[in-house]
Fold each of these.
Amino acid sequence: MVLTSIFIIIAVGILAFSIIARPFHEGVEENNNDLLVIDQELAALDLRCKTWLHDLELEFSSGKLDEGDYQQQKSLLEKEIQHLEDRLVRIQAEKLETSEKELETLISGRRMERVERSAGFCVQCGAPLQQSDKFCSNCGMKLE
Amino acid sequence: MIATLGFGFLFLSFLICIYAIFAAAYGIRTRSLVFVESSRLAVMTTFPLITLSVITLFVLLVARQYQFTFVYRMISQDLDPATIFTTLWGGAAGSVLVFTWFCSGFTFFSLFKTKQKELSTYTPWIVIVVSVVIVFLLFDSLFLENPFERMWLMSNNQVVSAFLQPQNSFTIEPEAGLGIDPIFRSITIELFTPILFLGFAAFLIPFAYNIASLVGGFFQNDNFISVRGWVLAAWLLISVALFLEFAWNYHALGIGSLISWSSMKTAIFLPWLTSLAFMHSAMLNERENRYRYINYGLLAITFILSILGVYFFKINLYPNTLATEPGLEMVMFIIAGLSFIVEVGLLAWRWKGLYRRGEAQLIPSRESFFIAASVFLILLFILLSAGQIYKVGSLQVNSPIDGTWFKVVAEALIAVLLFLMGIAPLSSWGGTTFRPMLKASWKPLALSLILLMLIINTGVKSPGGVFALWLVIFVLLLSLFDLVHLIIVQRSLSKSAYEGHIIPQSMDTFSPIGARLVHIGLMLIIFGLIGSNYFQSQSSLTIPVGQEIKFNNFVIHLEGIHTDLVSEGKVSTTAVLDVKDTSGVNNALLPRVDFYPKSGKVILVPGIWRMIGGDLYLVLKDWQIENTESITFAAYYTPLIVWACVGVGLLFAGGLILLFSKRSLLKKTPLAISKEQSVV
């Protein structure tokens, strides 16, 4: 009975070890995407400022805050929110540019891997074409 | 076989935890994400392993394997099958295992969805902190208070407890066990322990984040928001546990009052206070990014107190069944001591980064009230700690609250906190004038003064009690008026009010209501306790069978006395009392004495008539089994006590709203860290 218990424990131990050792086999993907982190951080700050703005509206409507203080705090919060949203828009644009560049790199890499017969040149921009192309890879003109 | 499995799973967890510590440390040292990820998975696997170990212990209990020391102490033949599950945390060995299980469970859930960026920043330090704590607890379970130890008969007829068979010993197979102390066979105390341990264990995660952020220098505001949900959940659990403990005192100990202070309650109350101070201080930090060092300090103190609380809880609650070997004491004090030294060292090292000068707070802004609330909570904490130390040092005072000086100061601090609870919601963030607060206060004040006159007219004589009642009624009315006003204003802020603004229309509106419900709940609890503290009337009465006696506004008639052999282990003597109040309403109360011949224990079960105005509480005393002609009992009338129960319900409901609202504190905000701050 004790031997059976020991075998079961060893089996469970091997299972646990296989889980713990998984990163050594599969590796761990490094996320160097600072833009993603900054994006999330700004979105969280943005939501928090909007929450405070909502609370400010409540407090003013409840009569807890004077008009002067209300306008001052509201103006500060709205400026902060605008500033954050501008930054978010810029980061979104940067992300889009980054992902477009990555897409272009991917496409040209795939094209280089394909070995095909040349099918001439594009009549619009003069870029070289391949047999299987349906659109020009440079200007996007539809090929017949 | 089952015990070997249970011990084996625990030992496996112990080894894996040690690996997790070294893997995380190596990952930090060599900046290797692979080792960090491996350490994270390692500490997470301890949860299923410890769960298996807990299941094996439970199987031993259910199967009544009396040859195991823990089972022998906890289970007896007469034990109700439904109670067996609760014996899992009945003694020191089982309770430490359950506490470790809860710690590993919370660790599992907090690390389950680790974001990529956290892997290189917080995660390795969190893994190290939780693994060190779990290693110490597992060490206690494996080598000091092992629940899988067997009983062995030595050649000199001595019985020893050990996991491995000693030389020249024989196996023992007892036919029955001692069983858990009958006084703990009550649903309230059975639920109290796991809920309390869940609360204490939940403080481990915020503490781990605390250490991680100090080591890594992550001082952004988001850090406290991320952990505030954990602290709130833990605080709610401890609140419920405290209430269950008070309820157990009331129903099972026959003391006639909810308030019976002890050093164990102090040990539970202290982390409750510091975590409450942290939640207020963290909200301030969210707005202003100041007082970070206070927040870090409060988190660490709360965790240390929760570890010590586990120890004090066990030595006070189970002095007889608890094996008060040096094991538990040594482990808990090592964890607490290490945590204290590390925290103080880190705070000193990071002082420059934490301390920020700021302008003085304007009164009566909400910021100033939050600061005041945190200060007074900390003062109350210091007072109770001093009382606990004084009690330990002098051995003269039974409890810090019984001593007159302590009682007066504690009540004064509670009065100030009550006042702050009532007026703080009337202020606003960054507000500067008293006018809106006075405007909101005059109606509740007028109403409370009218009620005060009515109370005085009833002939109440205690000035302290009258003042306390007035204060509670005043702040309660303030809060109720504010809550109703808040709901009306929220509903009236129509869709059009948001046009032109940039507030999302799906903005959560329940969080402020949740916070106010928590305050109202606390006020009602204090309201209920005032009745116990100031206005309780009590008497000792003897009635012959068939006779009646007057107590307060009640006429109590003794119909008869019955003695029954309820089960193999219990003899119950019940007094049948017919009680009538002044309005002619009748009620039958059945106070009884449960006698356990085997252990010689006597449990006094009261008969309670619950009314909105108060409880009539009758409990037998000076009981003699041969006496069937008359009974002597203690009678208590405690006004307002039912409101304490209502208060607990509201407090819990408000806390749940806060936890699960759209602004949920449970949602982890993304941690604002730059790549340069990565430790890996």
Amino acid sequence: MAEHASPGVEIARADGRTLVSLRVVAAAAKAARERLGLSEPGRVGQSDPCSIWLGPGHWLLFGGGIGPEELIGRCVESLGGLVHLAVDESAAWAVWQVSGAGARDALARGTGLDLRPARFAAGASARTRLAGIAAVVAALGEDRFQVLIERSHAAYFGAWMADGMR
Amino acid sequence: MLRIPCPWCGVRDEVEYRFGGESHLERPAPDAADAHWADYLFNRDNPSGVHHERWCHSYGCGQWFNLARDTVTHQIIAVYRMGEPKPAAGEDG
Amino acid sequence: MAGPSYRLPEGGWIDRSRPLAFTFNGRRLQGCAGDTLASALLAAGIAVVGRSFKLHRPRGVLAASAEEPNALVTVDRGDGPVPLARATLTPLSEGLRAESRRVFPALGFDLARIIDYTRALWPAGFYNKTFKWPSWHAYEWALRRMAGLGRLVPAPDPTRYRHVNVHCDVLVVGAGPAGLTAALAAARAGEDVLVAEQAAEPGGSLEYDPEPVEGQPPREWLAQALVELARHPNVRLVCGATVAGCYDHGVLTIHGTGDAGESWWKVRAGRVVLATGAIEQPLLFGNNDLPGIMLAGAVHRYAARYGVACGRRVIGVVNNDLGWRALLALSRAGVEVVAVIDPRPMPDRALSAAAAERGIALHVGATPLTAHGSRRVRSFDFITADGGRERVECDAIAMSGGFSPTLNLYAQAGGRLRHDPRLASFVPADCRRPVEVVGAAAGITGGAGPIAPAPVASTSQWVDYLYDVTVADVELAVREGFDSIEHLKRYTTVGMGPDQGKTSNRNALALVAALTGRDPGAVGTTTCRPPYQPVTLGAIAGDRRGDFYAPARRLPGHDWHARQGAEFEDFAGWKRPAWYGRDRDAGIAHEVGRVRQAAGLFDASPLGKIEVKGPAAAEFLDFIYLTAVSGLKPGRARYAVMLNENGVVIDDGVCARLTDDHFLVGTSAANAGRVAHWLEEWRQCEWSRRELIVAPVTEQWAVITVAGPRARAIVQALPGMIDLDAGGLAPMSQRAGRLDDGTRYRLQTISFSGEASFELSLPADRAPAVIERLAEIGAPAGLGPIGVEALLVLRLEKGHPIVGIDTDGTTNALDLGFGRIVAGRKTDFVGARSLARPADRSADRRQLVGIEFDPSAAVVAGAHFVTAGAGPRRSEGFVTSAGISPTLGKGIGLGLLEGGHRRRGELVSVFDQGRRATVRVVDRCFYDPGGARIRG
């Protein structure tokens, strides 16, 4: 029998956090990472501000209870003199929590990303193509994932995830 | 489907990438002759063997990079960043 | 049709206590749990399971696995019919309904069988030769009716299809003894292992082969292997899963079937182990396609695995030792084997002694001739070693013409094959990819024997059962010069059926080699391409159908628009309100009037928004745009056009300067992603040494445009809005601020409609509330929503072209009338050099013009401008947009017309599908050319 069922998957919308996208020019990337404690390539960081590496010199910062202006202000303060751009993206993303023993299989329906536990353990993050759209996938725990997709795709993505659990 | 090693994100499916054609093209100066400009616009190498080409990891980190790929076997011989010279191993193509 | 049961009194891995009822062509039958459809049909004594494709000859089950060419049936388990299912791989289930293909009007008496009696008319290449006079079409309707292997069902397909993506260190193909051994070794080494088995259960030859494995009885060894594999967490064994294709870089596809539906797997494997076994091949003799004539290994397998006797009086016609082994095992399993006929003068002595001991008549050094029978084999003729012709009565023939290793996936992986004369088969030679071949697939000893047609009519000896190719067809093809194996395949269609020649390619190859006096290795094989087995299209599509076929984007204010009665349509991946209300034309006209007389609210959120920042930003954008923007003052905006390197216009939009080193690039909705990518490409590949940042922010900002004579007052009434009259907020200005409720906004005074217009950008999550507020404030002033269709009319009245609608891939900046801007540029920009080429500067190019016409004239987008005069006319371009302006009451449009810029005032003929009309070439702007209304 081909294995189909994705038992033990829970999905939940987790919008509402402050998100700021920070880009710095290549020459300033190292300094920016050190000054703000930003995450390494392919990782989701744990320090404050918590960040996901999105590309060279590009991070998504999570505001721990502070608003976008304050978080952008922190960036400007820390990066004084470095060419950078921090923009509010709090409304640009739909954030989902996907968890449960079947979470990896549920996501693997739609992405070629190697989600084997040994290759994508807690703390790993990746931008990829999921269900045909751009997505950021971060492993928060052994079977707990955060998935970010562009907000305009939220209705589509929610329906797609629900269809997989049918 | 190819499996392409992004210098930043590791090996991913071809569907995450955008192909950018032959790499190492030199954009002519604005006063270039018509023939020189036409060569830049339209003429490309089509080797049976090693091809140096640009790819962008558009669904991933968004970075452009170079690939030396054998067009016969699809073997990927080298991956290197934009602006870097062709690797020596690929010169025989 | 069916006689009494052919089930053996004992034996087999079936559960006799669990009977399963099923139907075949409407007839109620019974099998047991553990049966395949094929074994259940054989147990019920069903000899004829289908008719052949071309000649409609009756055909029975030939094989016991994937290679089956005859028992292709339509199977319905209650969730819709699946055509072309192999009965040999279809697990029997309660209530299963099966129907044979090509039964017209009934399986027992097939009218089209008449074709068989006139088969001289249907030689190889028949469709190229026979149906030429008077025309192919005279025959087409009848042939189309008879052709085909299944029937399409028009009803929606209820089957569940899923995609599965898997990564593993090693993929093992086949769960027979060789595959399981390889899987165990990899599992013990700690590798991630995926084992794919096409049958419904693992085991392969362990299910019937009595030979011990590692000193253990095969079934015990299998049970232990499965227990150990199940203990390894990194091992996944999947049955009913056929590996369909092997591609570059370790990518393989698997077609999975089972109770839960079908699945399509993409596997990324570090290495591949092929344990795909070998397929027994038929022998060539007269009427070798009669029902009851089966592969010897299959006859044995049905007895040992399913407890089914394929006949009550079986004879063996074999040319190799493995065939003898199968017959002996069959005899031991309780099936009556009466004779063995082997063309070899000296078969293995121990085997022949064992056969003689079991009372089997031995005919060695014999020449097989022909089988007899109509709907089932009745007897077999052969010439004995001493030259006499003999006939033996039988109801089944177990034949073995040797074995062919299954190397399709190996060849797909780029592996080369070599012909091994000792094994009389192709075996793996070398492969540059990490693909290992184990077990019988690597070559099987004891399975080789002489291959030659029998000395009887070659038209009665079948090479390809599925596509009805005979020895005579191969001979004809070779005579006509099609002796390359690839030509032979295409000319005779041998191996081109859904079975891809699993039981025919080998014999075709041997025949060509013999007929042309070449070595089989020199003849070679045809190219193996995916899929190995037919795959349901639904499985490949997976869940990407219906709403999931193309992911749709929704506006932040989607629900509000829906409440206003929006009719949503797809525009470049977005669901956008096309118009509001039930009546399309009335709705659009009403919305246009609303903007011209009061105010309209348009959701422009899909417009692309890209922030560009850094010391090099101004210089970079001057290079990217045709229109220089470095002269803009902060707070000001400019309409700007982008070209590609050919000078062709690729997008237009508004570029605003936020601060000295910070710009906001606006793109059209359709090109938002493309332009962001375009800027990144130039930044990374040509401007990498400059300090420059490109940040697309389209998703963050909803854009609500309020346009019309009352727009200013409505927007001004938003609590917290800046003073729109102060500071000379002229058209093409950019401001930022914060509403009373804390909502940050950006405001641009940009007009696409020709009226005073305020484009308000809001964080997407705040947009619904602000839209409500605006609608409430504006309602007394006549504010209402407008859709995309109304905006298209409004912009046409203003003569604004849309890139991609009013331009195509040849339209350059000069064709759009930007000559003065091009001439004024001092620095290089993308496409500049191309605009200097003589052909790009020609005055005869297709240039964008406005057209006017009588509202009653039939002028539509796509109509061609044609030269005047009698006789054949030449196209001079085409209309790109056209409509009746509700504001102006006349027909207006845009078009690309040869030499259009110098033809102002000219009357031009347009032609569309036989209808003609006349239009006048005019200036592009039809409404308020002075722009007084924009200033409000």
